[in-house]
Amino acid sequence: MRKILLPLMISLTVGGLAVSCGKEKPLNSESNEVITTKDGAKFVLDTLNSRVEWKGYKIFKSESTSHFGNIKFESGDVTIKDGKLESGKFVADMSSLSSEDLKDKKEDQQKLNGHLKSADFFEVEKFPTSSYEITKVTPTAEGDYNTLLDGNLVIKGISKPVQFKANVSVNGNEVSIATEPKDIMREEFGVKFQSPAANGVIKNEVTLQIRVKGMEQK
User: Fold this and answer.
1) 94 in helix, strand or coil?
2) Cα–Cα separations (whole angstroms), residue 195 to 107, 111, 118
3) What's 34's DSSP letter?
4) With bands split at pLDDT 50, 70 and 90, how would you rate the model's confidence at 208?
5) Residue 199 pLDDT > 90, yes or no?
6) Contact call for residues 171 and 193 (beta carbons, < 8 A)
7) pLDDT for 129
């Protein structure tokens, strides 16, 4: 009898493990799935009223040692379903990168803009666009923001996951998204230039803020 029961117990135990593993596999696979969909109404980016705001820092991360400016969007769209954001992708025109703090000093502004677009920084001729594609949308009541956006930020052909807190507003045929100011590490995207001057240390952090408006495509 013991000889019969032992194989039976082993068989039941192995069978139980197989069933357990079978149940766990979908959970593991689901954790890697993109949460967003294209199911809904398409809203096209209003490129005249949308932009990326940037700020870079020299030596210390402070207002007195920073440059700031804008980058315009080339294109983009979002999907809205039942009044809620489903997905979106925004493509920035890197040739539009411009410093705003030097707008009253045209010669200095042109010099800085040219340097930022050169191979020392964003290498715009080789990488004319950057982008952010939303991969997950999570409603939240955290602080001043109503949404968490997970997505992939692409700069100089390098893609990194970046999460933004954001305020998303859908009003009829208009949608607006304004993210928090978020620090990214420029060196992670291949922007590694440092001035050879002793006082020319450039911080790794670059602060980005995305502001977009879209109109429903009829």
Assistant:
1) helix
2) 20, 15, 14
3) -
4) very high
5) no
6) no
7) 98
